[in-house]
Amino acid sequence: MPLQTEKVYALAFGAHPDDVELACGATLLKIIDEGHNVAVCDLTAGEMGTLGTPETRRQEALLAASHMGYTSREMLHLGDSELLYNQENLNEIIRIVRKYRPETVFCNPPDERHPDHMKASRLVYDACFYAGLRKIETALEDEIQLPHRPRHLIYYIQFKQLQPDFIVDVSSTFDRSRSGIEAFGSQFHREENSDQPVTMINRKEFLPGLEARARSFGEQIGAMYGEGFLLSGMLGVDNFSAMFPPRT
Ligand SMILES: [Zn+2]
Fold first, then answer.
1. How many Å lie between the centroid of ligand 1 and the Cα of residue 141?
2. Side-chain half-sphere exposure of 89, counting CA atoms within 13 A
3. How far is the CA of 16 from the centre of ligand 1 (A)?
4. 227-237 burial code (b ≥16 CB/10 A, e <16)
5. Ligand 1 centroid vs 210 CA: distance in angstroms?
6. Residue 107's closest CA among 70, 166, 58, 158?
């Protein structure tokens, strides 16, 4: 029996639910606006986060997916705060890559504050490579899987102020991308004087800080808002004037 596939143009991985929306949500909306399918895969349920239960975080992730218009959202349970580099976890990610057969993969950057982000980055990089090797076998019983290697692997930027290799103009989608972030109500919303613990991301300064960075990236390319990315390999230029367009 063949593996049930759902081909997409872009597949975005995150170590935790909300990583993707915070770091590259506006770019994913732009890709959807350009007429391409986008799927998201969270490697863990974020069960070790200070706030929210695994069930609330799952519900919030699905709500974010419907606000954003993804064709699909998967949640693997590879272990929040114990996201190990092992064959079992690699195989789970290889299966997702072979299922969605993306041209472009987004994932956490290799240098980050949260150790899970760095581990996710390594796992996804390696899984994207191994998914293309015919002899790597992750099929379940009676299942046929075809090898697949994404053409592009791109790192988004999270907590650390990394120097991007390129910046996407997200002026047309930045405001809308907020609805994807706000779906994660347990993480970003804290009532004034509430006895909820204060975390890095529910402080009232966090979302304005995110906007300030998008403004700063935008400023560097003459746009209102931007999202920065790092390349995992060399970018080849085919259509030169499409990549470096004349002033209109
Ligand atoms: Zn995270």
1. 33
2. 21
3. 5
4. bbbbebeeeee
5. 15
6. 158
Give the chain's domains with CATH numbers: 10-233 (3.40.50.10320)
pLDDT per residue over 186-236, tens digit each?
777 656 666 777 777 677 788 889 999 999 999 999 999 999 999 999 999
Question: pTM (2 decimals)?
Answer: 0.92
pLDDT of res. 135: 81
pLDDT for 96-155, tens place per residue? Answer: 999 999 999 999 999 999 999 999 999 999 999 999 998 888 776 666 778 999 999 999
- Quick check: helix, strand or coil at residue 134? coil
Can you give the C-alpha Rg of the chain in angstroms? Answer: 18
Q: How far is the CA of 241 from the centre of ligand 1 (A)?
A: 37
Dump pLDDT digits (tens) for 167-189: 999 999 999 999 999 998 877 76
CA pair distance 1, 114, nearest whole angstrom: 39
Task: State in Å: Cα 132 to ligand 1 middle.
Answer: 27
Q: What separation in Å is there between the alpha carbon of 186 and the centre of ligand 1?
A: 14
Tell me the one-letter amino acid at 68: M
For residue 35, the CA-to-ligand 1 centroid distance in Å is 28
